[in-house]
Amino acid sequence: FMLNASKSGSAANKSEKKGLYFSSYLWENVFCELCKDNFTENVVTQYGVVNILGIETPKNDNYIILEALNSEEILKKNTKIVHIIDFKHLSELNVGRGHDNQVRITDISISRLH
User: Fold this and answer.
1) How far apart are the C-alpha atoms of 105 and 111, rounded to whole Å?
2) pTM higher than 0.70, yes or no?
């Protein structure tokens, strides 16, 4: 199985942002060129499970994955946005819209502090 990311219509436009506690991934045009179905993160092949979007998860068990599901950008552009928050070395992690949070999520539907 091979994903050609250089062609238009596949997972071609990927951007990644990393911080001290998080990694964020954004893809545009995440669909199959042939059948136009959306890609999932993993595909099962005869050789095992293949992560076709290249999401790197932490090597420990202390993380969460958040996926943006209903923003206008996602719905209009067939975009996929995933945030991975790693809290291995923290006893407490503040997440939310507030400016003082360690991980800030700029979405009006998110509370100021979690």
Assistant:
1) 9
2) no
